[in-house]
């Protein structure tokens, strides 16, 4: 329904990022982490995430951060799970 004539005048296609761009996206999403991921790790992740979009890479970084919090401070995660909606 969104692609019916008259809804949008133009469609733009954005290709998936190449390895260099994926590395830059990963760097931008992790630059405030302490400690920062190593260059070797960022390079390896950029290589192994060939079919990832920018949004996918951001989500990967967010999930990694949440996983680290759960691992280092499980009480914080358990407390948030017990709060009422």
Explain the layout of strands and helices.
Elements: H1 19-30, H2 39-48, H3 54-72, H4 74-82
Through-space gap between termini: 34 Å
Structural class: mainly alpha
Mean pLDDT: 88
Element pattern in H and E = HHHH
Q: What is Rg? A: 18 Å
Helix content: 55-70%
Main pleated sheet: none
The total count of helices amounts to: 4
Give a count of the beta strands, DSSP E runs of length 2 or more.
0
General form: flat
Q: Work out the strand percent.
A: under 5%
Unreliable spans = none
Characterise the protein shown here.
The chain is flat. Helix 1 (19-30) crosses helix 2, helix 1 packs across helix 3 and helix 3 crosses helix 4. With 85 residues, the protein is an all-alpha fold. The two termini are 34 Å apart. It contains four helices and no strands. The longest helix has 19 residues, at 54-72. It has helices at 19-30, 39-48, 54-72, 74-82. It is 59% helix and 0% strand.
Tags for this model:
single chain, 85 residues
């Amino acid at each position: 329904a969104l692609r019916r004539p008259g809804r949008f005048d133009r469609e733009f296609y954005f290709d998936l990022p190449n390895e260099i761009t994926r590395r830059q996206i990963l760097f931008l999403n992790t630059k405030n982490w302490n400690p920062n991921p190593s260059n070797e790790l960022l390079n390896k992740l950029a290589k192994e995430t060939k079919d990832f979009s920018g949004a996918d890479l951001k989500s990967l970084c967010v999930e990694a951060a949440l996983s680290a919090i759960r691992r280092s401070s499980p009480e914080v995660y358990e407390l948030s799970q017990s709060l009422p909606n």
